Amino acid sequence: MAHEIHRSDVLVLGSGLAGLYFALEVAERHSVTLLTKTVPESSNTQWAQGGISAVFDEDDSVASHVDDTLRVGAGLCHRDMVEHAVELAPALVERLANVYGVRFDRLPDADRFALGREGGHSHRRVVHHLDTTGAEIVRGLLAAAQRHPNIRILPHQMVIDLLSWSKVDGSRGCFGAYSLDVPSGQVHSHVADVTLLATGGAGKIYRYTSNPDVATADGVAMAYRIGATVGNLEFMQFHPTCLFHPGAGSFLVSEAVRGEGGILRRKDGSALMDGRHPMGSLAPRDVVAREIDGELKRTGEPCVFLDVTHLDGDFVIKRFPAIHRRCLELGIDMRTQPIPVVPAAHYMCGGVQVDTRGRTDVPGLLAAGEVALSGMHGACRLASNSLLEAVVLAAGAAEICDEFRRSAPSHVAQWNDGDTVDSDEAVMVSANWGEVRAAMWNFVGIVRSNKRLERAKRRIELIREEIREYYQRHRVTRDLLELRNISLAGHLVIECARRRLESRGLHYNLDYPDSEPAFARDTLLAKRQGAVP
Ligand SMILES: Cc1cc2nc3c(=O)[nH]c(=O)nc-3n(C[C@H](O)[C@H](O)[C@H](O)COP(=O)(O)OP(=O)(O)OC[C@H]3O[C@@H](n4cnc5c(N)ncnc54)[C@H](O)[C@@H]3O)c2cc1C
Predict the structure, then answer these.
(1) Confidence of residue 418 (pLDDT cuts 50, 70, 90)
(2) Total domain count for the chain?
């Protein structure tokens, strides 16, 4: 099979907010190649509805945004990262709007941003574009990137693994990546001085998720395989309100709906969160998701309901046009009917460990966005802080990108197809996909226990064994590569969860229902030398 080698100064993996913003910021000084798995618009960013948090309101303050973030993060946020991000937020939002043309909603009579409110925030501070903020961000950044003479965007490139080197003295580095050109089935090498990992989230490791199909934890798996430290993967955020309907696929009903006064109700109309939390339906996501999960397990009902029928109908349509449209397509008029909702895997708080500028512990490899563990979210993410973290890390990584100039070796090992053959048992791949996601949902979901985690560990280990063997013998396909990644990421989530002998933030274990001061630290994992990937 032909093997092409492409060279550029900077390699960007992923076309969400983190990847696009970083590419644009470094392209004035460097040649940039950006690889993305399918079409550039396919990303978690594209689906973000609510918005990006930043302090603009006169009554709001940096201290208040920091406090809200730390409180929700349940003792695990890194204060330096949180302060850094919150302080930078207004300038970066202005830059998205003024330099890259992102059209955030503004108040009609003033040149100020219209600010939404979301769960866990004590002020209105969510800058948005209707209920399609992410799509608008991608539109603005992608248009700018496509126009830029120094940026080459290559779609349908499934990154397989990172290129890395190491020496006996312990030094090591990353110098690019192998990608599968999905349409042709050929493997290409992309060599660069600096590689930014911006591959986004991991929702697809669970059976039910709000994430699009590309969110298969590839970045965490690839970084772990070359020895980068990953961590806090036990903190998977389950969004409490995904639309429950057989025809809905993955569709999120934004937190902003609760922010504007939506009330969670049981089938009989009673308010679910009454007496459960001082903030009622606007309580933080982990609290609400657990309450819904408990309610559904107790009653056997398939869903609960999010009710905005008491709000002005015209306001509902104006504020939530996409949600309203989607619900109507499925026969639900949210102005007059409560919306059926269930929790689903939504956001990975953990990831590849980085500092405030996106440096991983492998020189030449930077990470930004959902794939990164920066300390911004701690044990639970505050709504609308993830777009913020993505742009802050991307901006920081762009600042320090020149540190790694000329670190790429001149030689690249050819991708070796060896004796592999085309897959003759696609059913093995699809069956294992389902098994990984079911095991993660059933045993490593919103509520965990020691027994459930051990059961999940055994199942995932068995599946990984099969996949390893299959991977050696067959030519790579996107499905197989993703399966390899979700099963490794599942394994890492379980390992993190097994090490946290307490409940905190998004991690709830029935056998350890309380938080323990001894566990007020990150859970970090790095591959041992010579260990099986
Ligand atoms: C439905 C939904 C609503 C959300 N709403 C909000 C919100 O209102 N506010 C907020 O702050 N956050 C929100 N989030 C979270 C937020 O959107 C994400 O955390 C953020 O956009 C992540 O940006 P990113 O650039 O890190 O990754 P993404 O935007 O996910 O981009 C990742 C990119 O990497 C590519 N990729 C992945 N693997 C590979 C591979 N192996 N090879 C090549 N390319 C690869 C993908 O194709 C994609 O282009 C929401 C998420 C979802 C799913």
Answers:
(1) low
(2) 3
The CB of 252 under 6 Å from ligand 1? The reply is: yes
Instruction: Find out whether the beta carbon of 36 lies less than 6 Å from any atom of ligand 1.
Output: yes
Ligand 1 centroid – CA 235 distance (Å)? 17
> In this structure, are 290 and 229 located in the same domain?
no
Is 37 touching ligand 1 by the criterion CB < 6 Å?
A: yes
Q: How far is CA 173 from CA 187, 192, 416, in A?
A: 21, 11, 21
CA-proximal residue: ligand 1, atom 4 (nearest): 48
Nearest atom in ligand 1 to 384's CA: 11
Q: Is the CB of 214 under 6 A from ligand 1?
A: yes
pLDDT digit string (tens) for 445-500? Answer: 999 999 999 999 999 999 999 999 888 888 899 999 999 999 999 999 999 999 99
Which domain range does residue 99 map to?
Answer: 3-234+349-404
* Mean local confidence (pLDDT), 235-243: 93
- Does 424 score more than 80 pLDDT? no
198 lines ligand 1 (CB under 6 A): yes
Verify whether ligand 1 is closer than 6 Å to residue 387 (CB atom): yes
d(CA 138, CA 40): 9
331 CA to centre of ligand 1 in angstroms: 29
Q: How many CA atoms lie within 13 A of 187 on its CB side?
A: 19
* Average model confidence (pLDDT) across the chain: 93
Whether the CB-CB separation of 360 and 226 falls below 8 Å is answered with: no
Catalytic residues, by residue number, are 285
Cα torsion at 226, 232, 237, 238 (round to 10°)?
A: 80
438 in the same domain as 321: no
Q: Are 412 and 191 in contact (CB under 8 A)?
A: yes
Task: Please identify, by atom number, the ligand 1 atom nearest to the C-alpha of residue 216.
Answer: 38
Is residue 38 domain-shared with residue 145, that is, in the same domain?
Answer: yes
Q: State the DSSP H helix or E strand holding residue 322, giving kind and residue range, or none if neither.
A: helix 321-329
pLDDT at 287: 87
Gap from CA of 410 to ligand 1 centroid (Å): 33
Q: Give the C-alpha distances (Å, rounded to integers) separating 58 from 31, 315, 388.
A: 41, 24, 20
435 CA distance to ligand 1 middle (Å): 24
- pLDDT mean over 243-264: 87
Q: How far apart are CA 350 and CA 234, in angstroms?
A: 7
Yes or no: say if 173 and 226 are a contact pair by the CB < 8 Å rule. Answer: no
What confidence tier does 307 reach under pLDDT thresholds 50, 70, 90? very high
Q: Which residue minimizes the CA distance to atom 14 of ligand 1?
A: 48
Atom 37 of ligand 1, nearest CA residue: 199
Nearest to 340 by CA among 208, 241, 244: 244
Q: Residue 179 CA: which ligand 1 atom is closest?
A: 42
Same domain, 51 and 149: yes
Quick one: 259 and 321 in the same domain? yes
* pLDDT grade for 37, boundaries at 50, 70 and 90: very high
Strand duo 52-53 + 115-116: pairing: unpaired
> Would you say residue 268 lies in a domain?
yes
Looking at the CA of residue 157, tell me the nearest atom of ligand 1.
43
In a domain, 420, yes or no: no
